[in-house]
# Entry
Amino acid sequence: MVIGKEAQVEGFALHRIGSGETPSVFSDFTVVLKGEEEQEFLRKLFLKPFANMAYTTEFTHAVSLEYNVLHGLCLEIGEGKDLLTCSEAIAKHLIDVSQHHNINGGDLFVAKFCGVQIGAAVHEAVGIYKFDEKEVFIESKTASGLIELSMKRGLGNNKPNKAVLVVFTEEAPTLFVIDNNDSTQFWQKDFIDHKPKKDHVNSTSNLLELTKSFITQQMPQDFMVAKADQIDLLNRSVQYFKSHSEFDRDEFTQEVFAEEGAIKSFNQYSDRFQTENNVELADNFAISAHAVKRQARIFKSVLKLDKNFHIYIHGDREPDRTGRGRERTEVLQDLLRPGG
# Structure
């Protein structure tokens, strides 16, 4: 989770990326805006899009990290080298990897930050943003006692079509990537070239995703498990992550599944899950509260009973006065009428 409320934009450069017959234009200056109103606008434009992101990645390269162009240029900015020179090199790198694709032209911003917070730590960062479109707005001003109106195009509430925030965390930079088309090869691979980072945020998200997949997909194949019991297991797994600061696999499986047969099946499914999804899940790691909150919303997705009924997850199972389990669920019946 990126917290930017105390961050400062130390400066930024803007370049225009051409498309087709339209040439690219490289700026010959950087912009520094120190006013609080201007800084607040820049934080909203550049950092707010990353505020709710939990998925983190890091730079990679098939041969060696030193051959990753963007990685090297971002490190140079972090080391204090000229922002304008590095930003132009970044723009040219983007143009190089875009030339064999049908890529839209647009504005490319490269910004340098200080005071970007992740967790409890504060870091310097570099942000790279591509805006393909501008919004239309009306500008009003007074002159000689008259009101003048003019239509203009610019950036206001726009979100970048593509962006990457490179945060200079210890050991290696941590990346947050935005792509309005997740299958965009040129941005994800050719321009950035990144892979999932092995940190507690991704570990938390991946373990919860593994658990949800096991309970809803694998368990019904291995055991006679009622839908209400699936809901109970999902709730127990989320509750474990909410009530613990550290994940321990043995403790987790005992608290959630209890039965040895279910635990064995979970561990076997975990091995397949890691292989099929190319992830590594540690047996112990610090739990990310932000990742838990994000995944908990996904856990409250619909479990389909049949074509007419859905169950929504709302809370847990608790004993009633008779001692029997009472499922605290909310059932929604979809009445499928002809023409409805």
Remarks:
- The chain is about 35% helix and 30% strand.
- The chain has two domains: 2-196, 200-333.
- The radius of gyration is 25 Å.
